Amino acid sequence: MIMKFLLTSFALSACLSAQSVVQSPQTADAHLSVKLEAERAITTGMAYLKSQQQADGYWGDSTVPAVTALALAGILRNPNYDHTAPTPDWVKAGFDFLRANQKSDGGIYGKGLATYNTSTSIMAFLALGKKEDEPLLLRARRFLINQQTDWGNKGETDDQFDGGIGYGGSYAHSDMSNTYLSLEALYHTKQLATDSEHGKQPKLDWEAAIQFVSRCQNLTATNDQSFASDDPDNKGGFVYFPADSKAGEQELADGTTALRSYGSMSYAGLLSFIYADLEKDDPRVVAVLDWLSKNYTLAENPGLGEQGLYYYYQTIAKAYSAAGVDTITLPDGKEVDWRLDLSRKLLSTQREDGSWINTNSRWWENDPVLVTSYTLLSLAQLHAVM
User: Fold this and answer.
1) What is the torsional sign of CA 374, 383, 141, 308?
2) Among candidate residues 231, 238, 138, the one with its CA nearest the CA of residue 185
3) CATH classification for the domain delimited by 9-15+24-384, as one of 3.60.21.10, 3.20.20.70, 3.30.70.330, 1.50.10.20
4) Would you say the pTM of this structure is higher than 0.85?
5) What are the residue ranges of helices labelled H in 101-175?
6) Contact 91/71 with Cβ under 8 angstroms?
7) Cα–Cα distance between 159 and 284 in angstroms, integer?
8) At 217, phi and psi to the nearest 5?
9) pLDDT, tens digit, for every residue of 327-359?
């Protein structure tokens, strides 16, 4: 059953980006060339990850299963991975480690960051696609649903954090990153829960989730929070959570202050709207796509520089694929094939040992295992839509 319900980001993007536009021979040749380069880079990246696996099957820090989950997902998304062959023992060992970290509450985590670890682990198990993991997935799914915030009056989104999801534990309040990752995992397991052989399953309050995501967007027409700004630099983009931006503040010409929208959370916001089934002409979707096109760059994570750069690249790959975007029109009118652009950027930064790393250590991106996993997932996503 699980293979039937395995609607991954790759399948989602294939559905949404199917268009009648025929590529020119030059574009088709460029895509083919980059896809072949990507396959070679993915192969060496996989070899690097295999060399970094610990004896107990995990990668990175044993208390952060998400690193292992990202590595496994990156390995299994390899376009040349043979899913019909028996699972290699070293890959099995990684999944055995994740299974051993599922707690009685259904979450898959070590000492903390329960939501992040669980969401990421769900996506790894979906990539594996084994029917015997359905009960595990449904328990993990229930855990995420139970993390949805309702701090005000029950059933009402009267608190700014209501409807969203946070890290869990001492990081109780909702944020855009954990909300987007949770919505991704819940979206891709929705059909499994709907048609489950394992009894009735709980449901997320999707309307409340949309409300929280909307409250993280600089768009006064749909955001009821006082911080929201429609100034030209920030309108349509996203912050980390209501009234807080990791990119800080911006003083406007009229003397007021706006929270700066920034790149990675704006792509996360677009993905969240897609997972929540908002229409393409919804003003929130239109506004974020407009902000993203105006601020498109691969030189940095807009608003944050090199901080979270490879996380940013992965959100680009997933969001534009899911939105069915082929090219981006920049403010100067230039058309950019973002798939070629991003692929070439990632290929150019691979190190001799097959790994990738960010020189900026924010959010653990000085860890080559984590960044290599992000990049393998990005390249596989790009390979699927070219």
Assistant:
1) positive
2) 138
3) 1.50.10.20
4) yes
5) 114-128, 134-146
6) no
7) 21
8) -105, 135
9) 999 999 999 999 999 999 999 999 999 999 999
